[in-house]
Structure formats: C-alpha cells, structure tokens
Amino acid sequence: MRSLLLLLLLSLAPLTLADGFTEAARAYQAGEYRKAFTLFLELAKKGDPRAQSTLGYMYGAGEGVRQDFAEAARWHRKAAEQGVAVSQHNLGVAYAEGQGVK
User: Fold this and answer.
1) 81-90 contacts at long range (C-beta below 8 A, 24 or more positions apart)
2) pLDDT > 90? residue 87
C-alpha cells in the first residue's frame, strides 16, 4: 500500500522542488513521517490538493500523526472538492464505513 501511495505522490509531484511537494514525498518515502507530515501540512494549508489528499491518508493510517478518522475525512473532503479522485473515493469509503463522518 505504501508503495502505491508513493507512486501516486511522485506522479503528482512536479519535477522541481519549487512547491516543496517532492521534498515532502521523499521524506515520506524515507519513512520520515513526522517531517513529511509537517511539510505536507504547510502545503495543504495553502490549498495544495495533493498535500491535502496525502494528509487525509496519513491521518487515516496514523503515519506521522495520531490516527484520526475525522481529520482524515476533513482533508480528503478538501482535496475531493478540488477534483482529486483518490480523495473522492476515500471520502466515499469513510461514509460507507462511518469512519470520521456522520
């Protein structure tokens, strides 16, 4: 699963480090989840849907942060509203399983 997420992260990342996404994805790949979380959070707060989607995954899996399904759903919703298909799917799963949503 992590390999699939990494592949997704890197496929969405630009070829330069200009926006910081590649750096965050590399930290994640290296298992530096706290560092990756901090970097993704900074980008997500600025509206980056890739980072928002990744935070949704990290909250759901408890990687780099305490597992929190409500926060996972919140970040997936933000990314889903910007057209990120994997977050649209994950948000649907959250509703189907009642994890973090009413």
Assistant:
1) 82/47, 82/49, 82/52, 83/49, 84/49, 84/50, 84/52, 84/53, 86/8, 86/53, 87/49, 87/52, 87/53, 87/56, 90/53, 90/56, 90/57, 90/60
2) yes
| Token digits of residue 85 | 């298909």
Residue 95 has pLDDT above 90, yes or no: yes
CA 45 to chain centre: 12
Tokens read off for 38: 């901090």
Summarised one tens digit per residue, pLDDT across range 38-68 is 999 999 999 999 999 999 999 999 999 999 9
Q: How far apart are CA 87 and CA 33, in angstroms?
A: 20
